[in-house]
Amino acid sequence: MRTAAYQRQPNERVHVFDASTMPWEETARPGLRLKSIRIDDERGEFLGQIAFDPYVRSGLHQHQGVATSFILEGGLTDYMGHVAQNEVGINYRGSTHDAMSYVPTVLVSKLEGPVTYPPEDKLLSGVHAGSTYQSFRNPDPDVPPEINVPVDRVPGVASGVFGLSRQPVYDYAGSGLVRRLLQWKLRPETEVPAWQASDWVELWIRGGEIAVNGQKAFANCFVVIEPGATVRIDSPFGALALVWAEGRERWAAGGSAGDLFGFAS
User: Could you say which DSSP state residue 174 is in?
Assistant: First the structure.
């Protein structure tokens, strides 16, 4: 039975989870493990970390929604090639592949739709939320199964908030979703004016430390911001974070006109 640290609740709150203190949970496929911040099999949603032992396959599968994974350690190989450390691999609806780890590999992942496996596989890996058996074909063999983005090479963009720059990674074009994936860089002594989340916002702190509404979130912490929450962020000593935003920020009347997530771009 898979467990998760959190279930989505629209209570206008902010939550911080330290993934380093969470135990790895085994899946049905030996050599694949999870740390689940949240998991919803009905909706096919997952946020957390995935670990592959060397020479372990994900199993052939097809994504029925967007999946994004940051390679924290190691890398994965499929029929199109390799996604490497410090890159984000983006799978879209219809992405069909089998990912292989030749070295120990850890991913920070967000799954936004279910995944199907061929009936003859007989063993759902458990690594994908909402996994089911279903026959399928690759809907477009000429389209690669993922887009790989070397995050640190993406040019930074001013956010309008002093000390905070963003590196846009994925704008969800063609997915039917109005969302953003980006990386934040916060210089030491950055203070982000109070803003309100119009929808879900989730962060993974890659390095450094921030305080969110007074709660410390340091390297390898996840932050879940519920819709309607008022958020105050400061970083006395600098931070680097991946950010998934499902809606734009709202500034108080007369407040900052910054663009934290890139929805105005």
Answer: T
Q: Which of 209, 256, 254 is nearest to 233 (CA)?
A: 209
Let me know: does 44 contact 65? Beta carbons within 8 Å: yes
pTM for the predicted model, two decimal places: 0.96
The per-type count for the chain, helices as H runs and strands as E runs, is 0, 26
- Residue 254's pLDDT is what? 66
User: Three-class SS of residue 232?
Assistant: strand
How many Cβ atoms from other residues are within 10 Å of residue 123's Cβ? 11
In angstroms, the CA 84 to CA 190 distance is 31
- The Cα–Cα gap between 66 and 92 comes to 5
pLDDT digits (tens, 9 = 90+) for 208-218: 999 999 999 99
What does the pLDDT look like over 237-263, one tens digit per residue? 999 999 999 999 999 876 667 999 999
How open is the CA angle 177-207-21, to the nearest 5 degrees?
90
